[in-house]
Design brief:
Elements: H1 3-6, E1 16-26, E2 32-40, H2 55-61, E3 79-89, E4 96-107, H3 111-114
Antiparallel strand pairs: 1-2, 1-3, 3-4
Length: about 120
């Protein structure tokens, strides 16, 4: 499945899409360093809407937010969607007041990389 195949409706929310990169190296002090990074894909991600709950703005406002990567096995150069889970609601107002965030694996390539030339 490819990222662009998940939802063909251009007016719908795509969510926040990230690409996973892993690297390891020796630094100048001889320390072995492993680096794992999720890089936001701006062109593939939603710019913000009511369906995704303005997820990026929420993350930007509260830098201390803990994102739990549930994925046990990462796909290097694979694409992931950041989603919210375990929603909790205030029982009086009905407003969502808590949730967890996790990365869900989507694909190893975009449509552009997989197209026939």
């Amino acid at each position: 499945m490819e990222i662009t195949d998940i939802d063909n409706n251009k007016n719908s929310c795509k969510g926040q899409i990230y690409k996973f990169h892993a690297s390891s190296y020796l630094d100048s002090k001889g320390n072995y360093v492993e680096k794992r990074m999720f890089v936001r894909q701006k062109r593939l991600s939603c710019k913000g809407c009511d369906r995704c709950g303005w997820l990026l703005e929420t993350l930007s406002e509260d830098i201390s937010y803990d994102i739990t990567p549930i994925v046990q096995e990462y796909h290097n150069n694979g694409y992931y969607r950041l989603i919210t889970t375990n929603h909790s609601y205030d029982f009086e107002s009905g407003v969502m007041d808590g949730w967890n965030m996790e990365f869900v694996y989507i694909s190893d390539k975009t449509k552009k990389e997989g197209e026939n030339k």
